[in-house]
Structure to design on (593 residues):
């Protein structure tokens, strides 16, 4: 009996140690984010100190300053490019996935292969002509150019994800709807849409994450008019002096939408990141 | 795959003449293809045509600063690319950064996933904390690493190593690759963790319990049951991670600007420099083509894996 008790005790203590370790690792990975948010509430004088300050008088000054520094247009451009490109991706990917999953066209594999291969094409391989062509048709520094590029960037992921979600709809459901005399449109709107809505939200989330955080196209294709949030942040690099508190406030605000969305939709994240391969 | 499934409504009437049934089949084929076409055409216009233009540019000598300097030079850009010392270094750096980041992030990811795959107090909170680095805008996190974390004077990392007696380090100039890989590992470990955790949770509990009943220890169970089961997930994580990390630009642009000198320049950053700071369109295009050929090798492997994962599920 005593021996069993000790064994249980050791195991419990082992489990306790593992839990502490897990918490430690989680907090360690979160630390830079925590520090970013903390610094955002500092006065500049508290932001660059040796040793670093954990306790200080908090201020909202930095967030207020952001909009005086002209953050508004950058956020509006990001919002526009992200929203419109995501809507476009969904509009293109939903019918395409239908044609690949529900009523498959011939050579479905080849088409899927093609879509995913465009995602594997390094961006640097196409940026030069895109830049030159955009310059010729006057599309440089135009937020619509970003919309087109972000749509192209996210379309393959969306097609694969949508297809994976659609394959989960049992064929019997669709057949039953057709037997009952439902038209194609009725089948789609009344039977399929409610079933695919969660997957649709997950797809949109992944598109939003990638579009909102995108930097390479934004830095090359925009200047003053169409610049997005990452470019606003990069603007702090060239500034004279140390404005870490200001920078941290900007970085916090810039990251907030995607971080919150990702936290809410954690379960869907895995599936999106693996393009639907992992449920 | 179910390419040949005949949907109930689509079956051709039995007594139709060959000609009409062919027409019906053709119409049916187009009805099936129509929803696919907008996405297909868009993808071709937005990706394939620019790539073909890249190939054409790569055969020309053309500097944007000299209007009218464009002329056909055949393969000479490629000859220049392969004799370019910086290009070779950028290629090596790309392999180091991609390989280092993916390998370390995957090992850490497996460890963290194993830790998270248990019942304990605050599990969902820890998981939420853990995935956050992947969600933070890469430009924002790179700037935080450059300033608050890695600054030689006021950075937290130097403060921490100082408490155990190490001299402060100027990470970005003394160990630029370490700084870049560190920031990338921080960003990508959550990705690997999520994938491996999904793998762990898809494991059949009964198999694990049976192993326990048979007297297999924790280590033995992990080696002979869990690890083989995880293989598919690990491969998927490595390949998807590699595809994204090969294109790393943000962290290098912000943390090191490819420097000091060209010590941390990778291929995307070098091509960016040649095209947008050197305006050398022909050279940049040739490098782009070389990168694509290199990527195709990796991508083919990745695709096989994705298809295998999909077909086994069906």
């Amino acid at each position: 009996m005593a021996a069993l008790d000790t064994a249980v005790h050791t195991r419990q203590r082992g489990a306790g140690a593992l839990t502490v370790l897990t918490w430690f690792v989680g907090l360690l990975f979160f630390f830079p984010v925590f520090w970013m948010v903390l610094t955002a509430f500092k006065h500049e004088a508290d932001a660059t100190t040796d040793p670093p300050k954990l306790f200080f008088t908090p201020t909202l000054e930095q967030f207020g300053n952001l909009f005086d520094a002209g953050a508004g247009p950058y956020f509006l451009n990001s919002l526009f490019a992200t929203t419109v490109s995501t809507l476009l991706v969904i509009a293109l990917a939903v019918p395409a996935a239908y044609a690949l999953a529900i009523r498959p066209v011939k050579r479905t594999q080849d088409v899927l292969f093609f879509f995913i291969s465009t995602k594997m094409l390094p961006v640097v391989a196409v940026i030069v002509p895109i830049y030159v062509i955009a310059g010729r048709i006057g599309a440089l520094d135009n937020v619509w150019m970003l919309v087109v590029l972000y749509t192209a960037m996210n379309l393959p992921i969306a097609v694969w994800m949508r297809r994976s979600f659609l394959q989960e709809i049992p064929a019997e459901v669709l057949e039953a709807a057709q037997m009952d005399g439902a038209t194609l449109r009725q089948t789609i709107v009344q039977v399929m849409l409610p079933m695919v809505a969660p997957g649709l939200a997950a797809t949109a989330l992944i598109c939003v994450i990638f579009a909102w955080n995108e930097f390479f196209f934004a830095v090359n294709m925009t200047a003053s008019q169409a610049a997005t949030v990452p470019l606003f942040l990069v603007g702090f690099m060239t500034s004279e002096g140390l404005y870490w508190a200001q920078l941290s406030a900007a970085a916090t605000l810039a990251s907030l939408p995607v971080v919150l969305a990702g936290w809410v939709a954690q379960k869907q994240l895995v599936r999106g990141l693996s393009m639907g391969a992992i449920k | 795959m179910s390419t040949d499934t005949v949907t109930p409504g689509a079956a051709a009437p039995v007594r139709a003449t060959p000609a009409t049934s062919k027409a019906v089949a053709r119409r049916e084929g187009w009805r099936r293809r129509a929803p696919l076409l907008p996405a297909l055409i868009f993808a071709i216009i937005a990706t394939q045509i620019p790539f073909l233009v890249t190939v054409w540019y790569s055969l020309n000598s053309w500097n944007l600063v000299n209007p009218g300097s464009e002329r056909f030079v055949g393969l000479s850009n490629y000859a220049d690319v392969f004799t370019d010392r910086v290009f070779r270094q950028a290629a090596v750096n790309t392999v180091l950064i991609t390989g280092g980041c993916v390998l370390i992030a995957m090992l850490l990811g497996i460890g963290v996933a194993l830790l998270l795959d248990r019942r304990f107090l605050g599990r969902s909170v820890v998981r939420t904390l853990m995935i956050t680095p992947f969600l933070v805008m890469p430009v924002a996190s790179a700037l935080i690493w450059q300033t608050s974390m890695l600054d030689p004077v006021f950075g937290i990392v130097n403060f921490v190593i100082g408490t155990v007696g190490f001299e402060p380090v100027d990470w970005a100039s003394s160990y630029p690759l370490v700084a870049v890989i560190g920031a990338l590992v921080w960003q990508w470990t959550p990705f690997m963790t999520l994938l491996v955790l999904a793998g762990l949770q898809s494991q059949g509990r009964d198999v694990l319990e049976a192993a326990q009943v048979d007297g297999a220890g924790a280590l033995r169970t992990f080696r002979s049951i869990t690890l083989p089961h995880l293989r598919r997930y690990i491969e998927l994580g490595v390949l998807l991670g590699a595809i994204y990390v090969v294109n790393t630009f943000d962290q290098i642009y912000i943390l090191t600007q490819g420097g000091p000198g060209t010590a941390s320049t990778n291929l995307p950053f070098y091509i960016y420099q040649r095209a947008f700071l050197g305006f050398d369109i022909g050279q940049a295009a040739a490098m782009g083509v070389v990168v694509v050929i290199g990527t195709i090798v990796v991508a083919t492997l990745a695709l096989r894996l994705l298809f295998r994962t999909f077909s086994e599920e069906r």
